[in-house]
Amino acid sequence: MRIATWNINSVRMRMELLLRLIDEAQPDVICLQETKVVDADFPFAPLAEKGFTHAHVHGMKSYNGVAILAKQPFVSRDVQHWCNKQDCRHAIAELPGGIELHSVYIPAGGDIPDPEQNDKFAHKLQFVDEMTEWWATKRSPERRMVMVGDLNIAPLEHDVWSHKELLKIVSHTPIEVEKLTAMQSSIGWVDAVRHFVPPDQKLYTWWSYRAKDWAASDRGRRLDHVWVTPPLKDSLKGYQILRDARGWEPKPSDHVPVIVDLDV
DNA sequence: ATGGTGGTGGAACCA
After folding, report:
1. Is the full-model pTM beyond 0.70?
2. Tell me, in Å, how far CA of A112 is from C1' of B14?
3. Could you give the CA distance from residue A18 to residue A70 in angstroms, rounded to a whole number?
4. Total domains in the fold of chain A
């Protein structure tokens, strides 16, 4: 089973690129973040033509929005809310074979890395704390689960272009890394991409729109992740980070798709 | 220290 996750930054703006991802990467399941569309307006038809006849969408006007697209029917579907908000950041679907798949969009957190000064940063930290507690109390490490999405945190030194320069930049601050690591430890999540790539090797999934030449400066961060629970660790068969997608015409997302293959 | 770009929606907000 090939699972792709992509912060698409508006599914309507980038439908042609989503169809290109399907043609070129041949995923079985696609998780999206930042769809930026209410469910009634989600563009189901072109996806159905490509075989993705099942869609679990959870969107809102203008902001956020997550989705899970599949060729096979879901066993069940659900959504989860965090921090007493209804902001469409977490969709859940059980796939045939008993794998529970989570498409997650953690808040970006604003610019100032201080929860006292910046409500958005406080929201981000609380979001991760709540989710950590939820995994620990509502889910078992024995369960076959895959969690993917834009976690908006780059936890390792080589998940950013410069560890030293980004220590005070939201997405790579010690408090965020500590909280994300705690979430990972909650039920023994395995970082599926780092399972294949040693920690001293640079990996990025996001490059800012604001760079003059994103590829030349290559100031990226690994914000998009695929985690699996221990029972699926031995099923991990490969990964791809579609760096080229950062240059896809006419208008690329600032994130690229991350793909993991599971032998299940 | 600043500003750089993009999506939504038609100003201001978010990333």
Report:
1. yes
2. 14
3. 13
4. 1
For residue A93, the surrounding DSSP H or E stretch is strand A90-95
Query: Over the Cα atoms of chain A, what is R_g?
Result: 17
Domain CATH code at residue A54: 3.60.10.10
Rounded Cα distance between A156 and A139, Å, is: 26
By residue range, what is the domain housing residue A96? 2-262
Which nucleotide does the CA of A87 lie closest to, via C1'? B14
C-alpha–C-alpha distance, residues A64 and A57, integer Å? 12
**A209: CB within 7 A of chain B nucleic strand:** yes
- Any idea which nucleotide's C1' is nearest the CA of A254? B6
pLDDT digits (tens, 9 = 90+) for A40-70: 999 999 999 999 999 999 999 999 999 999 9
Strand B positions with any atom < 7 Å from protein CB?
3-9, 14-15
